């Protein structure tokens, strides 16, 4: 049994990371901490940097983890994009997006290995939408609602860069009017007045499944909490995550002067029968 598990893991690892890059694959081109670019490989295109020009035709056929030497002698590395990369490297973000510290906690709380149908509102720039798509099983889908077509166009562009558009169904509709899906395994809301949507979402949420709401201000917490409680949601928690990075120098390790402190509040609960 253990041998079979190891064999499956190795097969997944090598198929995921060791296959040659093809046209259309997403890649992070990393030169140094200040020069990291997320791109989708397309023949005939190039990336111009102050360290040299990178022709995408030359990257196709290489593997993630490969490196190439630029005209200036600097090295560029080809890396598999991560959820962290979505936030910091090159995707369009005309609206405020969730931070990786919040996204990571949300993904863990949703128990994504057990879900097939995830409902989200609003789509925004699509950072959480894409993070969900990258984390879901092969047959799972995200149905993401928003009232702004311009924002969904941005999210579609970003999803296409990462190659996860087939896992996402974009819906231009006000979720406060209800959803089209009958059985949802998880629901996530990032909108100004989630308490106006929650009563309509209780029925289509499967029993014991999770609903998570993200709000940026304290005065939104109470309305959201009691909308969840009055709708029948139980096991409700209100949380805030703080992230502090450290600066490492020889004999001088200390917290960075600038950190990510308050970003918002996560309110989560589960449906009872």
UniProtKB/TrEMBL annotation:
CDD domains linked: AdoMet_MTases
Residues holding S-adenosyl-L-methionine: 125-128, 146, 174, 190
GO BP annotations, alphabetical order: tRNA methylation
Top-level taxonomy: Archaea, Thermoproteota, Thermoprotei, Sulfolobales, Sulfolobaceae
Assigned keywords, A-Z: Methyltransferase, S-adenosyl-L-methionine, Transferase, tRNA processing
Range of residues in the leader sequence: none
Protein's name according to its UniProt entry: tRNA methyltransferase complex GCD14 subunit
Keyword set includes Transferase: yes
Matching Pfam families: GCD14, TrmI-like_N
Coiled coil feature spans: none
Entries under SUPFAM superfamilies matching the protein: S-adenosyl-L-methionine-dependent methyltransferases
Molecular function via GO: tRNA (adenine(58)-N1)-methyltransferase activity
Domain called tRNA (adenine(58)-N(1))-methyltransferase catalytic subunit TRM61 C-terminal: residue spans: 76-259
Cellular-component GO terms for this entry: tRNA (m1A) methyltransferase complex
């Amino acid at each position: 049994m253990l041998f079979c598990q190891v064999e499956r893991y190795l097969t997944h690892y090598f198929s995921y990371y060791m296959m040659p890059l093809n046209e259309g694959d997403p890649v992070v081109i990393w030169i140094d901490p200040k020069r990291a670019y997320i791109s989708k490989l397309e023949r005939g295109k190039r990336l111009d940097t102050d360290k040299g020009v990178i022709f995408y035709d030359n990257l196709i056929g290489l593997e993630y983890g490969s490196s190439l030497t630029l005209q200036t002698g600097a090295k560029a590395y080809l890396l598999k994009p991560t959820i962290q990369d979505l936030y910091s490297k090159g995707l369009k973000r005309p609206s405020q997006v969730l931070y990786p510290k919040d996204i990571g906690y949300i993904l863990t709380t949703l128990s994504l290995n057990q879900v097939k149908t995830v409902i989200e509102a609003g789509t925004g720039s699509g950072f959480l939408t894409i993070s969900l798509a990258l984390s879901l099983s092969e047959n799972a889908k995200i149905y993401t609602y928003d009232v702004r077509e311009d924002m969904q166009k941005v999210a579609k562009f970003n999803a296409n860069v990462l190659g996860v558009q087939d896992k996402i169904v974009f819906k231009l509709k006000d979720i406060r009017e209800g959803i089209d899906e009958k059985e949802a395994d998880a629901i996530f809301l990032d909108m100004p007045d989630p308490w106006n949507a929650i009563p309509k979402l209780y029925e289509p949420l499967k029993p014991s499944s999770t609903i998570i709401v993200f709000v940026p201000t304290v005065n939104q917490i109470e309305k959201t909490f009691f909308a969840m409680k009055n709708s029948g949601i139980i096991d409700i928690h209100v949380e805030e995550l703080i992230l502090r990075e450290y600066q490492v120098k020889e004999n001088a390790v200390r917290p960075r002067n600038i950190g990510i402190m308050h970003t918002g509040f996560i309110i989560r609960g589960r449906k009872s029968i």
